[in-house]
Amino acid sequence: DASGRCGDFIITLKRNGKPMEILDAYVDTGPNPQAIINIFNGEWSSKMPGKSGLTSLPGTAALFEENRIDWLSSVIGGFQNKKILELGPLEAGHTYMMHNAGAKSITAIEANSRSYLKCLCIKEIFGLDRAKFVYADAMAYTAESTEQFDLCVASGILYHMIQPVEFIEHIARMSKTIFLWTHYYDESLKERENLARQFETPHEIKVSGKTYTVCKRNYEQALKWAGFCGGSKPWALWLTRDSLFSALESFGLHITMISFDELNHQNGPSIALVASRK
Q: What burial class does residue 114 get, using C-beta atoms within 10 Å of its C-beta: 0-12 exposed, 13-18 middle, 19+ buried?
């Protein structure tokens, strides 16, 4: 029986979409970091750091040894003593890198409950004592917060927004320097069979009197995976490259560096950039 009764409530436990028994939730070994990783077996996007000896499944992305974060460090003179806002930490891979590189503090905002719990596991395993993980929606958090940061790291989150321009407006207000890695919409997507059906017809939106071009992207089958790491809605709006640059400019940000500019990225055109207040 995969159900447990607590008062008048019936709780059905599942792992990877399959029923599990309550005793499956217990560990029968002594302290072991691998056992912590195994709590989310089959849901990990990230490979664990090579030197850790830990295995996360399926764990295909090298987010704990990310060359984009190494590039960012080289561009901004390192993370030492910086107060950092990280939006969408996913599984704390970038948090781990910035913490180990001497960040003064990292406030990381994660809206996905499974990802949030994975971040807490990573914090405990690797002793990330200068990182604080907040379970909240990044859009809501940035709209409400008055705190100021030296650096905002928004990697892999802008293209999951339903209000991407407003999101840029909020982070431009909160940080002197912003790092973005994001996908963007390009007409070449129409010729990519594996991606074209996910996108609707591009259209224009107006924000604060200015016009931007966006395209609606639907998540479709990705929503069925327990390790899904997209936005909180079944769709998101992708800005075009020109509209992305225009939005940054509109809110007082000057692009200082661009890299990882990949029109043919397997998941859609993408770009990494650093922008600072003028």
A: middle
